[in-house]
Design goal:
The structure holds two protein chains of two kinds.
Chain A lengths: L1 H11 L2 H23 L9 H35 L2 H5 L5 H31 L3 H28 L3 H19 L8 H12 L14 H25 L4
Chain B lengths: L8 E10 L2 E11 L2 E6 L6 H9 L6 E6 L14 E4 L11 H11 L5 H11 L15 H13 L5 E5 L7 H16 L3 E6 L2 H5 L4 E6 L2 E6 L1 H9 L3 E7 L2 H8 L5 E6 L4 E6 L2 H15 L3 E6 L4 H10 L1
Parallel strand pairs in B: 3-7, 3-8, 5-6, 6-7
Antiparallel strand pairs in B: 1-2, 1-4, 8-9, 10-12, 10-13, 11-12
Helix pairs in contact in B: 2-3, 2-4, 3-4, 8-9
The chains are: A mainly alpha, B alpha/beta.
Chain lengths: 240, 309
């Protein structure tokens, strides 16, 4: 599995993809620095900045988009280049192939997204413990998105286009205005996990979060279900 | 009388259809140790059949076994089977050596370095092994892919159009390598749409046309059947009537038809004899030949003949 993981890392980290997602991940921290340079020295880790930067930018934008760009390429590149046969005609269990692809995404996306969110939080003056919780929850959110988009990359060559619609409409718009959607939304789970772990620090999310246990179960179910669906797809598809 | 060797690959009434399109239609065959050529025109269903044999595609009906095991979702079987697909894509960022070591590692080769070196040596790419695959010529890529298919010393080897992009010298080397592997007792199945590629190599030929197995057996018997087919040849000459009159006297000519331009359509059962005779006939009569072109010697027409006869 280590060999496939190494190969997958090399595949998903094409020069341009790495540069673009790196810049995207740096945006929240750069924005905080820019606001400070422009004279907003009072900027703090407050309800307003948590809502705007942590939720609006990191959880609502950077986390799904960075993860989607990497996860959809995990199998997408193999299918586009028609190299998937090379892996499946080896004495390697299908589950090891799927796991290696998922881990390759996580190995890049988790550090990037966590660094993106934590750097912004620290620059805003968040306490280390709060930043630690944020890192933990972002890692869970990235894992859930990675599981979803790994399957998407296997199902369609247009995973990025469909993924953007899903992120903007379902995760962005509908989960904000329709409370029931939050039970089926990774963003909803992420906000609920943050709030559940630190109700005081993330009180700004109080009016729009689902129950903490539901968020834990939801995150776990999404990760497991989409992993198993990807495995099922790999076992049943006709490999090009 | 010696007993027939036990078949390594058994295909039993296998079919594959996509909606209303039947790609492979109730094909049954067995493949024993030695070299077997799977021959057929483009679109005959060879690759679909191979994909079902390799387990990459699920049959719509029927069954396949290799060494008595079903290949679909059976990764362990590929410790004994090596495959080179029709797709020429490789991981371009890997060097040839890295590609081989990657393949050997996944196959669980006990000594990855030695296995890779041996396979690279067998395909004659030792000098280029440390170059990225992206810089290889098409023929070199094919040879390195072949090395990856045999790096784990498989007992059964399935190669889909392995000679695409190779030059004549590389084809000769390929033939030698296949003979060596066959002499070691391995079972080799090679697909091709070019008869000449496999006729000197394969112990047995399977002919596939329109998703069906049209003929199988020794290549000489099949070749003899192919040679019975009349070919159309178009001849453009300065005096078509006189060349037509001369041609009709030849034994190998079945019919001659005058065309609308300065051309003559000839149906010949022996194109080689026609080609040898026509230059002399034209020279003796002072006729200038402008063009002599076989019209339907494509494999498609050859296979059509086999199927129809």
């Amino acid at each position: 599995m280590a060999e496939i993981l190494r190969l997958s890392l090399r595949q998903i980290l094409g020069r341009w993809r790495a540069l673009v997602i790196g810049l995207l991940a740096a945006m929240p921290a750069l924005l905080v620095i820019l606001i400070r340079v422009l004279g907003e020295s009072e900027l703090a880790f407050s309800n307003e900045t948590i809502d705007l930067i942590i939720d609006g930018m990191v959880i609502g934008g950077i986390m799904p988009i960075v993860t989607m760009a990497l996860a959809s390429a995990a199998f997408g590149n193999e299918l586009e280049d028609r190299t998937l046969y090379f892996l499946v005609l080896k004495p390697v269990a299908r589950v090891s192939i799927v796991l290696a692809k998922l881990l390759a995404t996580l190995a890049v996306a988790v550090p990037l997204v966590v660094a993106s969110g934590v750097a912004a939080a620290i620059l805003l003056g968040a306490e280390v413990q709060v930043a630690g919780l944020l890192a933990l929850v972002l890692a869970a959110g990235v894992t859930a998105y990675a599981s979803i988009f790994t399957l998407a990359g296997m199902l369609t060559p247009r995973a990025i286009a469909y993924g953007l619609v899903y992120v903007l409409v379902w995760e962005g718009l509908l989960s904000s205005i329709v409370s029931g959607v939050r039970y089926l939304s990774v963003r909803g789970y992420t906000l609920a996990l943050l709030h559940g772990l630190d109700e005081e620090g993330f009180a700004v999310f109080e009016s729009r979060v689902i129950e903490f246990p539901a968020a834990i179960v939801g995150t776990g179910v999404v990760i497991a279900a989409f992993f198993l669906l990807t495995l099922y797809r790999l076992r049943t598809m006709d490999v090009p | 009388m010696s007993a027939s060797p036990r078949p390594v690959i058994v295909v039993d009434k296998i079919s594959k259809w996509y909606g209303s399109v039947v790609a492979v239609n109730e094909v049954s065959l067995t493949i024993e140790p030695g070299v077997t050529g799977l021959l057929g025109p483009n679109g005959a269903g060879k690759t679909t059949l191979l994909k079902m044999i390799e387990g990459l595609a699920a049959p719509s009906d029927g069954a396949v076994t290799i060494f008595g095991e079903t290949p679909r979702n059976n990764p362990d079987l590929f410790r004994r089977v090596g495959v080179m697909s029709e797709h020429e894509a490789v991981y371009g960022f890997q060097t040839g050596r890295q590609f081989l070591e990657f393949s050997a590692t996944l196959h669980g080769a006990p000594d990855v370095g030695a296995a890779s070196a041996r396979a690279i040596e067998r395909v004659g790419l030792a000098d280029a092994q440390h170059r990225p695959l992206g810089t290889y010529s098409r023929g070199m890529r094919q040879r390195m892919r072949l090395a990856a298919a045999i790096v784990h010393e498989p007992q059964a080897i399935i190669l889909d159009e392995p000679l695409n992009g190779t030059d004549p010298r590389q084809r000769l080397e390929f033939h030698d390598l296949m003979r060596q592997l066959a002499d070691e007792g391995r079972t080799i199945l090679i697909s091709s749409h070019i008869l000449e590629e496999v006729e000197t190599l394969a112990d047995r030929i399977l002919l596939m046309v329109s998703g069906k197995l049209a003929a199988s057996g020794n290549y000489r018997a099949i070749r003899a059947k192919l040679d019975e087919q009349p070919y159309s040849v178009r001849i453009v000459a300065s005096d078509p009537r006189r060349i037509a009159a001369a041609l009709i006297e030849l034994e190998s000519i079945e019919s001659v038809t005058l065309g609308s331009a300065n051309d003559v359509m000839v149906l010949s059962s022996n194109v080689a004899a026609l080609q040898r005779s026509i230059a002399r006939l034209a020279r003796d009569r002072g006729i200038r030949l402008e063009r002599v072109e076989p019209m339907d010697d494509s494999l498609e027409s050859v296979f059509s003949y086999i199927v129809e006869s």
